[in-house]
Amino acid sequence: MKSPQACKYLYGLIGYPLVHSFSRDYFNQKFIAEDIDAQYLNFEIEDLGLLMEVIAEYPNLNGLNVTAPYKEAVIPYLDSLDDDAREIGAVNVIRFIRDKKTGELQELRGYNSDVVGFGKTIEGILTPLRTSAMVLGTGGAAKAVSAAFSKYDIPVQLVSRRKSERTLVYEEITKAMVAEYKIIVNATPVGKYPHEDQYPDFPYRFLTKDHICYDLIYNPEETMFMKNSAKYGAETKNGIEMLLLQAFDSYEIWTQDIM
Fold it and tell me: Which domain holds residue 12?
């Protein structure tokens, strides 16, 4: 395999920590299958200030995915945002706009493909009883999920460990609230590998067969959040479909002008 600097196109993922990257395997297999002179790398950076050093080191870098904890913090480093990213205040895709003759970097533009990825899965989870959602978390992923629900006119109640005007804390969730919100989404990293034994402090005992409990985590395939929810009869779903859909959207964003 070529060195990353020798490829025509380079892409990657920034975040910390990056214990396991679905994206790296997915995109590198895609590039090989389609005979594209490109590679995808993980850039595990403990300090987001190192981003500009990464960009300087790899002049063939043409796009990045962004994961926790940088989906919101990366925005000041960008030159522009698309409408979804601007509205949500979170970015998970960066497109490098370069001069086609010189390769000089002209603009870093931020997008949010989580909205698209999650949005395309919504119709498959709706039933006549599932008309409102409770979203656990208030970070970039929760904002994307909430934005996707809004496009379907589905009201959302956010839950966080910290109380605010727009959010509940977990201790405030009642049986009546769980009965009202029959779509429960875990948009936190709690339960993600390598901490598979953890789960959000949600009152699972109030769930029923009419609920769906959707965990955005995909590793492990069945989280403790999902197991606890299934114990009380709820339908469960992990984040692999959303991940695949947002990965495809990332590819479309990066390659719209070059492939």
Answer: 4-111
Spatial distance between the Cα atoms of 134 and 155, rounded to a whole number of angstroms: 9
Q: Which residues are catalytically annotated?
A: 71
Cα(259)–Cα(256) distance, integer angstroms: 7
* CA 218 and chain centroid, separation: 11
Smallest CA-to-CA distance from 200 within 210, 209, 216, 188 is with 188
pLDDT tens digits along 117-157: 999 999 999 999 999 999 999 999 999 999 999 999 999 99
Structure token digits, residue 63: 């796009």
DSSP 132-147: -EEEE--SHHHHHHHH
Residue 190's CATH number: 3.40.50.720
What span, in angstroms and rounded, lies between the C-alpha atoms of 33 and 28?
A: 9
Q: Which of 18, 15, 138 is nearest to 69 (CA)?
A: 15
Closest CA to 114 of 153, 74, 85, 80: 85
Residue 256: inside a domain: no
Flag whether 80 is in a domain.
yes
User: How far apart are the C-alpha atoms of 248 and 236, rounded to whole Å?
Assistant: 24
Query: 176, exposed or middle or buried, with CB in 10 Å at 0-12, 13-18, 19+?
Result: exposed
CB 182 within 8 A of CB 212: yes
Q: Are 88 and 144 in contact (CB under 8 A)?
A: yes
Residue 3: CB partners within 8 Å, gap ≥ 6?
none
State pLDDT tens for residues 159-185.
Answer: 999 888 889 999 999 999 999 999 999
